[in-house]
Specification:
about 140 residues; alpha+beta; Alpha-Beta Plaits; 4 helices; about 45% helix; globular; binds flavin mononucleotide
């Protein structure tokens, strides 16, 4: 099995996104990622994006080069960029995850704090948040 490379970044949307624009972004991302063997997750919340991309190192960095230049977001801050033990979002060409419920405000505050101080512990927590939201979305989907 080939090594997995992971890239995790935080960015800010340059303008508010309509649901249809997110759908279009996901369609485009999933089509490209499937073709490149990439998997990952995207959170869009309170004007922030948080994204994990995983796969072959060249494919991940090539994709990230395109994403970085995308004018739909700015202030792209890489948080993790390196080898990973395994894929965390292996079933998804791009899993869209979103917080909901009483913790919402806390997520925005957490992302703002992460931007100010991306300590290893804060980055670990952010990745754990993505994994938790992805698992919850999967469970909700199964429950119908
Ligand atoms: C927040 C954000 C996340 C994105 N994620 C991906 C992605 O996972 N894969 C991808 O191919 N493009 C992604 N894009 C889009 C790229 O920036 C770029 O527009 C696209 O890859 C160009 O693809 P095309 O040449 O097929 O139109 C993302 C853009 C934004 C703003």
């Amino acid at each position: 099995m080939s090594a997995v490379f992971r890239l995790f970044y935080l960015s800010k949307a340059t303008r508010p996104f309509e649901a249809a624009e997110i759908d279009e972004l996901l369609l485009q991302s999933r089509r490209n990622n499937r073709a490149a063997g990439l998997t990952g997750a995207l959170l869009h919340y309170g004007g922030h994006f948080l994204q994990v991309l995983e796969g072959d190192a060249d494919a991940v960095t090539g994709c990230f080069e395109r994403i970085r230049r995308d004018e739909r977001h700015a202030e792209v801050l890489p948080l993790i960029d390196g080898a990973a033990a395994q894929r965390d979002f292996g079933d998804w060409a791009m899993h869209y995850v979103t917080p909901s419920g009483p913790g919402d405000r806390a997520v925005v505050a957490f992302l703002e704090q992460l931007r100010r101080q991306a300590t290893p512990e804060a980055v670990r927590q952010a990745l754990a948040l993505m994994q938790r939201l992805a698992r919850r979305a999967d469970a909700d989907a199964q429950a119908g």
